[in-house]
Structure formats: C-alpha cells, structure tokens
Amino acid sequence: MILGKIIADYNALAGDLQKEIAGITYDSRAVKDGFLFVAVKGEKVDGHSFIENAITKGAAAVICEKGHPVSQLLVDKYPSVSWIRVRDCRDALAAFSSAFYGRPSEKTVIIGITGTNGKTSVSYLIKSVLEKWNRRVGLIGTIRYMIGDECFDAPHTTPEASDFQDLLGQMVEQDCGYVVTEVSSHALAQKRTDHTRFRVAIFTNLTGDHLDYHGTMEGYFESKVRLFAELLDESGTAVINIDDSYGKRLSAMLAAQRPSVRQITYSLSDRAAHVTTEDIRLTFRGTHFSLKMKGNVRGMEISTPLVGETGIYNVLSAICTALAVDVPADIIPDGIAAVEMVKGRFERVDCGQPFLAVVDYAHTHDALERLIGTARHLLEASARSGKKAAQGGKIITVFGCGGNRDKTKRPVMGRIATELSDFVIITNDNPRNEDSTSIIRDIEAGIEKDDYIIIQDRQIAIKMAVLLASPGDIVLVAGKGHEDYQEIQGQRHPFSDSRMLEEAIAACSLVTERVRARKVMFRSSQC
Prior knowledge:
The chain is α/β, with parallel strands linked by helices. About 40% of the residues lie in helices and about 25% in strands. It folds into three domains: about 5-100, Udp-n-acetylmuramoylalanyl-d-glutamate--2,6- Diaminopimelate Ligase, Chain: A, domain 1 (3-Layer(aba) Sandwich); about 105-335, 3-Layer(aba) Sandwich (UDP-N-acetylmuramoyl-L-alanine:D-glutamate ligase); about 345-510, Protein-Tyrosine Phosphatase, Chain A, CATH 3.90.190. The strands form five sheets. It has an eight-stranded mixed beta sheet, with helices on both faces. It has a six-stranded mixed beta sheet with strand order 17-18-22-19-20-21, with helices on both faces. β8 (about 145) and β9 (about 150-155) form a beta hairpin. The relative contact order is 0.08.
C-alpha cells in the first residue's frame, strides 16, 4: 500500500509519501525491507531508541512523536527514509494498521469483552452459540487465537494494534462473519484496539487487579469505559452485568451520554434487568436454570456443564450477546450446552478419584472468593440431595500470588482463602523476579486463622492437597489455570496444574491400592 494512503491527513516531516509499504510494525526486530516502523513508547523501553536499528533492517518510513528529541541529524543521515511526526504514536499505530489491513472491522461483526473475570469463558460461549447458528467465527483471547478451527498461540490477551489488525484482516479473508475478542484494560489504556469498530461490547465485572499499572480502581474503571464510550459503534449494543456496582454505574453513564447505544443488562437478583434467572440448580457436573427475558413470557431452559454462580454470569453474558446479534432463540440453549469445559476455568480433573479436583485461573481476590463460594455451594447442594459422599466434605485450597504484579491483593486473597476454605496450602504462583518468600509474607499479612500451611514448591503443594483429600472433598488449585509454565527468576519452566493434579491423584491411588493389597495379604496370613 502507498504510504500516503496509510497516513492519510498526517504531515510528513521529510521524504517521499508515494513509496510502497510492505508491512507495519512497532518492533524493530520484526522490520523487513519496505516496512513502516512506528516508534511506540512502551512501559520499559522507548521505540524511538530503536529507530536507527529499524532503518538498518530496511524500514522505508518512520513514525515518531512530535516533541520527542529525535535528532535532525538522524533525519539528515537517512534522506531515503520517509519521516512522519504525530502527536501520539500509539494512536497512529492503531490508525495506520487499520488502514494498512483494509479496515477489517468494517467488514465483520466485532464483539469485544472486557472485565476483570470471565472474559475467556464468555468468548468460548459466544463462539459456540454463533457456530451453532452456522456462522464462521474468529476468536482473540487469553488462551489462543482462532480462525475458524485453526488455532495459534496467544502471547497476549489482546495483541498490539498492528498484530490485532493483522489478525482481523486474516479473519475477514477467511470469511469470518464474526470476531469475538477479549479486550484487556492494558489494551484499552494503550490504544491497541483503537480505530476498530465494535458492534457489541460486554462488561462482565470489575474487581481489584492490575493496580500496579492503573494506580487506582478509578483509573482501572476508566480504561474499561473506553470500550463503551469511544470504541463501540454509535448504533452498537452494550451488554452489562448490573449486579456489579461498576456495571450499574457504566449503564447509567451510557444512558446519559450515549443514548443511541442499545443496552442489554443482566442480573441474578435485579428484576429490572433485561435478562434474569430463576430456579437455579447446581451439581458437580453442571448447572441448570430458567432464563427470563423482559417482555418475553416464554423464556428459555438453560443447561451448561459450567459450574456455579460464576458460570451462570458467563452464560448470561453470552446469551445477551446472542440476542444482540439476533441469533434465533431456539439455537441459543444448544450453543450454550455445547461448551464442555474451558481450559483452566473451573476445569475438573477427573481420574476416578472420590473427590472433586478443580483447576481455576482465579488470581484476583474476587475470583478466588467466587471460586471457593462455588465449591461451598456445590457441597451444600450435594448434601441436600442426600449424597453421602458429599456430606461433611471439606474444601482444600492451593494458591499463591504472582510476583512483580499488584501487591495490594495479596493479603486480601490470604484472608479470603483461609476464611472460606477448610484448609489452605499457600505456595508459589509465578514469582517471576520477586523473592517468593516475600510474596508469601504479603499473603500471610491478611490471615487471622491458623488453617493453613506453606509449601513453596507448587508440585509438592498439589500432592499434599491430594493426600489430605477424603471422599466428598473438593480440592481447588487456583491462580495459573491454563498456563503451561511457571516463571521463576525470569526463567519459564514447564508446569501445568492440571497435569500435576493428574499425576498426584494417580500416585496417591497407587499408594492406596498397595496399602489395601498389603492389608488383604496380612489378613490372609492370619487365617
């Protein structure tokens, strides 16, 4: 594409605007001949420091920021390079990437999901419903990127603007009529999804997380609001959880400031919401409830393998989104039921053991509270049903907190885990470059009970939880979910919570069988 068409109304500092551009990137290492390099300021490094490196690798044009001390000497040194100055390189990266890839968001229906918890599960639920409707769907999320059934690794929940627009472009080329994307607070703050036309925007909830980056809850909330206030199409639909106080605030804000935006709200308790529930039934294997829609007498009967209140909220998000894009009502229940289990999201590890073992990504205090609360509700529901194995069951929770991240949630998570569980094993999560002992001390600062032990080795901690479990108990391994590594002192080591649980259960079962066999042999020798 011709450079002048990409940059539109922006003024060149120097150089030819009629040259052909072969690609666009913010990473000097990815530059090839004919590329446009955008000098984006990152959290740790400034792209302006890599301009000369990008040029030596073949950059044909450079975008830099006004007021940045880019030496005129550098401009004079490379007269064959085209130079464009902009007010904001992040905005420019998003705008130019959208133009370079043919403005793909205008050619497909983009559905964006934001919130602290639930984004990944909601994305899979929506994808399932749309596919039941025989639509081809693209997905951009925490676990993976998908174009139809083709999967790619996901290095970021929401990729940088050039990569994001590239993915959208590929999805349009592959005839994806819908794209479901998680939109993180970092992505919104860093304008990675700017210059994208969102037709539906979903707000799941907002609880304490990423305060190391956003500073305050208000700053965190404001980053989320951008999706609805700035990026959602004027005739688009906002799907909002109004049981969340921030969701209720967002709904009122949109009603006052963007009345043309349609709202579909959902709630478990507020009958003023557009979508609510009745007759909720929880089991170890899934959830069933009646869906009620304002102005619709018929409603729906929903069954899902997802477990607990958190699962219900995620299902409601997906149902409201389906209604927003006019999926026929008779298709929606089948699409919801088809999602078996999302990796690392209340993922049941079943090796035939007489207790429930669960891996979950819960790494915020709200998510951990909901996880343990779901486990408690399951035990209570099973006890009411008269299942002997569930009566008197206890909850054993294994968790830690990540290093080099928001420290304020650590003591809160310690308090919640020990207050709501029957027994807790505090261990390492991803300590990254932080001292694991100091992380655990932060967790302990919020604990007032003595129902816990510390085992820093996560593998041993999981084994201990399995050894302590009795029939009818629930073992929760929280924090890492789908991750297949553990990061310690900057090094990533292969590690999967679900695999470690499987191995621990198998080893424990083997020991149990050997003990039983020895008992039988001993009794036989006494006869």
